């Protein structure tokens, strides 16, 4: 259906611009163009579609959500026609899937690749957005949708001597296609989800791997392995129930979260449950499927942490390496999983350097020099140092709403939003995975947001609305809700990207709605059913 109405003021070049062509941007483009009949242009900085899965080509890159729920659910045929053969999806598989979606829905003709949006400004006189790109071009639109990615802006620590390194220095989020680490002396800084995945894969490829670890990690097995086609067929038959469960769950990972409190059972039973889930694999399952309070109750958290620590002691043969690998803090970062992470340190060609105990002094042309004076000679140095998460890509643009106010001025105390999808002072602008969106397996949350934004725009189009935007009061209320929920958990007590603690100088702030996808979808529905409560509309 075409619901396009004449613009109240000046005709824009297109109805809508979508920035980014990952999971979020691809679906938003489909929804606005193919279903609402709007004219839409999408811009993507990368040389291909896929977002995360275009850029993160490092050895070992894969999903840690199981493949059957790391996908879109919006189209029944698409769900049925795309198979998987391993429990988790390797990077090339996710990329191929997203490329397939783009082709299947004929989206490529409206996506301009290799084009970074440098500025987006709202003009109050015309009620239009002007979008400028790095090549100097500009176009106007009524609706602006930012699908910039929440883990998409690389964090590249400024370590002394960084640019003097004579070998290849790369960030995992910009892995060059021509880089093969086989037979090379490789160093890696960072042991988060990315670093641990890379370490397991790189150990098998490199001549020697040196791991520079700042914080040890709680890592559980992923249980990765082949999935036979009979299981794929069974899963496909049950997709209706599976997606119903996912959409109404907490973390949307395709398993039932536990409702049992950790300390309500005997020590023996606790260990049995932890072992059972250790054997099944998956980080979110271990944190949320074993007991219901590991992320909220310090005693429960300590029990889970102690179990993982006992596994490190069992697995790692060298006691000194085991000591360095053993975390002593809370188990309250995004839970990660990997097949054979701790086992990797039993290899002779893998060396662990605790840079907390023996800091990096500088990077030299030959490698990395640590405080003990040792120069670790390397051919390749990998920064697995993560992301300026959530708001990083927003602040990188010259993004200005009403009164020409820059997004940084609005977000001085940390990034905020109404419902994770909209921002006061930024009319007709929407965000996918904006600040204070849900903390879950992300494709189901992306779908919820895209569908909700599209419905709101369809309504505005039908009614010939000039602008629609949330009130500051609604945004403040949502921020307070997110803070209240986050403070009921242990997550704020651990330093990680979830609260911006990984970037020097970044102000710590609550950046997620942590009550789960079911509750989040409920909030979205309630707001829509109440005539978009919290939004102000200016009629044409
Ligand atoms: P992205 O895929 O990040 O896409 C955003 C796009 O916007 C990028 O292509 C970027 O180039 C583009 N862009 C940004 N700014 C501009 C600009 N100014 N101009 C033009 N283009 C711009 N999540 C899970 O739930 N489960 C997982 O298993 C999982 N695994 C992951 C593995 C890795 C290695 C990483 C890094 C992340 C993983 N994630 C996972 C998180 C993942 O980012 C999301 O699941 C999902 O891919 C996000 O999609 P998106 O479209 O929102 O963002
Ligand atoms: P991350 O979790 O932020 O980890 C970054 C690592 O780099 C940490 O070990 C950190 O140490 C270290 N580091 C950062 N700055 C450093 C510095 N200046 N000096 C030394 N070490 C430094 O980033 P990530 O591993 O890329 O993961 C981010 C998120 O992306 C994940 O939580 C997940 O959501 C997603 N992801 C998922 C997968 C998957 O399994 N499917 C894979 C990759 C990414 P500290 O801990 O001490 O800060």
TrEMBL record:
Domain FAD/NAD(P)-binding stretches:
15-261
Q: Which UniProt keywords apply?
A: FAD, Flavoprotein, Monooxygenase, NADP, Oxidoreductase
* Pfam families per UniProt: Pyr_redox_2
- Is NADP given among the entry's keywords? yes
The GO molecular function terms of this record are: oxidoreductase activity, acting on paired donors, with incorporation or reduction of molecular oxygen, NAD(P)H as one donor, and incorporation of one atom of oxygen
InterPro entries cross-referenced by the UniProt entry: FAD-binding_Monooxygenases (IPR050775), FAD/NAD-bd_sf (IPR036188), FAD/NAD-binding_dom (IPR023753)
Transmembrane is among the record's keywords: no
Which PANTHER family does the record associate with it?
DUAL-FUNCTIONAL MONOOXYGENASE_METHYLTRANSFERASE PSOF, L-ORNITHINE N(5)-MONOOXYGENASE-RELATED
Q: What is this protein called?
A: Cyclohexanone monooxygenase
